[in-house]
């Protein structure tokens, strides 16, 4: 309900949140289930990947997919390759 004279403030979307959503979508779209579990953080266009993956190949795929997203200025790939990955 709008009160008379009330000004509605329009909030601008946070670019870092939008970039984080695009990177997460790119990882999910890779087709590798473990990449959907990767934690993604963004700070002023710098993307940070964290979590566990079963192989070095998947670590590289995650990096490549993240770097392909428009707006990524830098990437820190802190994914850890687990020898005994429970889901793979």
From TrEMBL:
Entries under InterPro entries matching the protein: BON_dom
Name of one Pfam family that matches: BON
Domain BON, residue spans: 15-83
Name of this chain's protein: Periplasmic protein
Organism this protein belongs to: Gimesia fumaroli
């Amino acid at each position: 309900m709008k009160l008379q004279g009330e000004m509605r403030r329009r909030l601008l979307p946070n670019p870092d949140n939008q970039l984080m959503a695009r990177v997460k979508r790119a990882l999910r779209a890779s087709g590798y289930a473990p990449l959907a579990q990767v934690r993604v953080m963004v700070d002023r266009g710098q993307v940070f990947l964290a979590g566990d993956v079963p192989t070095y190949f998947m670590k590289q795929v995650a990096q490549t997919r993240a770097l392909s997203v428009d707006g990524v200025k830098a990437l820190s790939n802190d994914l850890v390759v687990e020898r005994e990955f429970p889901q793979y």
